[in-house]
Design brief:
A two-stranded antiparallel sheet has the order 1-2. It is 55% helix and 2% strand. The protein is mostly helical and 296 residues long. It is built from 11 helices and 2 strands; from the N terminus they run αααααααββαααα.
Length: 296
């Protein structure tokens, strides 16, 4: 039975940047790993680099630099050269083009989204973007509506809205970005300047509510001494003069009241049943239960 010679394509590629490397691929397939194999492989990659650059140019103006796109396309070309089998009979260009294009699309999908977006939503974004561009040429003077895009892309209106939202996740605005006012003035402000911050007073709300009933249960004189010391910022010596007692007595009263309230609040927290959902355990108030400061 006569043997069939391997099928190889002798047809000249259509593009000018597609060289005829059929013989080089047959040589590469017959060579074992080694320096000569690497030399032939590198020469093939160099011959096809213009085509890879052309494919990379199709994706310009999409938020990625041209040089980075060329690097990604070159990586796809190397993968195509390593995986191509000349014995299958198809031209290398027909195998390399989808391989390089897929590598570039994968780069956009995995590296250029600021927020992680599921693959399905990314596909919706691409379909909505293409449909919007095609309809924009047929509806001059206005943007296509959601219903028009949905009919053109064979999607539901909810899917179109999801694709539009996904497009907004492709890139994020820096907090340092300067925005100008509506009056057209030159003075601008950063987004960080208008963001709210956590109110430090919120941290002591639970503490204040925990000690409120225990403070109310103190004798009137003890409550007034604590108020003058921690909220009126009055020294122990002045408090002692106001009540006609010694400074040492004032110090002992403050320490005793703070210790008693601390113990009572901790005991209340231990006896309270655990909530169904984890919540913050009340702590003793910081100001009211601090150790008295030295007299000034």
């Amino acid at each position: 039975m006569p043997t069939r010679s391997p099928r190889t394509s002798t047809k000249r590629p259509a593009h000018r940047d597609a060289p005829d490397t059929a013989e080089a691929f047959r040589t590469l397939a017959a060579l074992p790993p080694g320096p000569r194999h690497d030399t032939v492989r590198d020469r093939i990659v160099e011959d096809w680099l213009p085509m890879a650059d052309r494919l990379a140019g199709r994706f310009r103006n999409r938020g990625e630099s041209t040089e980075d796109l060329r690097q990604v396309a070159a990586l796809g070309l190397v993968k195509a050269v390593d995986r191509y089998d000349p014995e299958r009979g198809s031209a290398f260009e027909s195998y390399a083009v989808p391989t390089i294009t897929g590598e570039i699309k994968r780069h956009f999908r995995d590296h250029l989204w600021t927020l992680h977006v599921p693959r399905r939503v990314q596909d919706l974004r691409n379909r909505v973007r293409v449909a919007d561009g095609e309809l924009a040429r047929t509806t001059p003077g206005r943007r296509p509506t959601v219903s028009e895009i949905a009919r053109h892309a064979c999607l539901s209106e909810e899917e179109v809205r999801l694709g539009i939202e996904a497009a907004e996740s492709f890139s994020a605005l820096s907090l340092d970005a300067v925005s100008t006012g509506g009056s057209g003035g030159s003075d601008g402000f950063a987004l960080m300047d208008v963001l709210g911050s956590v109110d430090p007073a919120l941290d002591v709300v639970v503490d204040r509510e925990a000690v409120r009933p225990r403070l109310a249960a103190l004798p009137e004189r003890d409550r007034e001494i604590l108020y003058l010391r921690f909220f009126g910022d009055m020294t122990q010596s002045r408090i002692a003069e106001r009540f006609g007692i010694s400074q040492m007595h004032v110090s002992r009263l403050i320490s005793r009241c703070c210790r008693r309230i601390r113990e009572q609040v901790l005991e209340d927290a231990a006896q309270r049943p655990a909530p169904r959902h984890p919540r913050r355990t009340p702590r003793p108030a910081r100001m009211s239960l601090a150790r008295p400061r030295p007299s000034r």
